[in-house]
Amino acid sequence: MSQDLYDLLGVARDADADAIKKAYRRLARQLHPDVNPDPEAQEQFKMVTAAYEVLSDPQKRSSYDRGGDPFSGGFGGQGAGFSFTDIMDAFFGGNAGGATRGPRPRTRRGQDALIRLEVDLAEAAFGVSRELKVDTAIRCTTCSGDGAAPGSHPVPCETCHGQGEVAHVQRSFLGEIRTLRPCPACRGFGTVIPDPCRECAGEGRVRSRRTLTVKIPAGVDTGTRVQLSEQGEVGPGGGPAGDLYVEILVAPHPTFTRHGNDLHCVVGVPMTAAALGTTLTLPTLEADLAGAEGAADSGLQTSFELGVQPGTQSGHETVVRGQGVPGLRGGRGDLIVAIAVETPTRLDERQEALLRELAEARGEEQPTGHVKAAQKSMFGRLRDAFNTH
């Protein structure tokens, strides 16, 4: 190996042990044969590994710095195989505290689950409790989650002797390189189930349909998710269940449109009532909750009176405070009522005569028309009002 070992690792000659180890791990992740099958990369990986074997050993590094041959006499003075721990550290993040990876647990947390629930606007506004049928994995009651048939139990794997890993030895010009891989016999668990539970086939969980009660808080909107802790999928090996998320979808309402915590509605008013003024009795959103029970027994305010001033024009809006949707964190939005003045389309002779008389009295028999200054917001409200109506 004629190339400078420091250049192979890309470190300065005065680099400390930590910098040398970091440089080697970075190169190992790029050049290891399991990651990069290119033959040139494999040869470079061997040289990088040899360089690290020298520079990570203070005695060999000192000999190399003095011009000696660090490869004479083999590695460690014995020429035998060496542990490949640092290569595994490069891929698995090291073994802090001296702990080994060992067998992986059969019991793992389950996945979260998601279902969608449609509710009415009033239910979303004031809250509701619903029963849901969910189909998820639950812990197997036959084996209590361990996967073994009743009367039996998992036993240590004879291949890896319960370690969950087996050593793989590969010969190279550097000697024998040992790597640890998950045991193929037990799939890395360290144990095998000789007599699996027939109910769950050794999984420790089965699928089942069950009924849950979910409480939807007041103020939710489309897209809101209600979390039910540990009501999702039970994990492999009967592990802890994940969470269940209920995503809310609010159905359209025939009268009200929701914008945040505010409600909007459009009320049609006859031309004569708009001109003379009147008082309207309108329903509140609570009227949807009263239902068949009746307003008298429910204790809810199911209606309110709205005064229409004489001369009210289409698009005029009245804000009714506190009649909107309750907020998730308190408070309540408003109800915005837009007026749509309705012009009569069918008149009998008497009604037509009366309107002509009114037009004559107001000097409007032959109106010339006039263009008002642009008021985008007013025309926008008019367009929305008539489209909704």
UniProtKB/TrEMBL annotation:
SMART domains, per the entry: DnaJ
CDD domains: DnaJ, DnaJ_C, DnaJ_zf
Cofactor: Zn(2+)
Keywords of this entry: Chaperone, Cytoplasm, DNA replication, Metal-binding, Repeat, Stress response, Zinc, Zinc-finger
UniProt-listed Pfam families: DnaJ (PF00226), DnaJ_C (PF01556), DnaJ_CXXCXGXG (PF00684)
Binding positions for Zn(2+) 1 per the UniProt entry: 140, 143, 197, 200
Primary localization class, coarse: cytoplasm
UniProt record, GO biological process: DNA replication; protein refolding; response to heat
UniProt keyword Ribonucleoprotein present: no
InterPro entries hit by this protein: DnaJ, DnaJ_C, DnaJ_domain, DnaJ_domain_CS, HSP40/DnaJ_pept-bd, HSP_DnaJ_Cys-rich_dom, HSP_DnaJ_Cys-rich_dom_sf, J_dom_sf
Gene Ontology MF terms: ATP binding; heat shock protein binding; unfolded protein binding; zinc ion binding
Quaternary organization: Homodimer.
HAMAP family assigned: DnaJ
UniProt name for this protein: Chaperone protein DnaJ
Phylogenetic placement of the source organism: Bacteria, Bacillati, Actinomycetota, Actinomycetes, Propionibacteriales
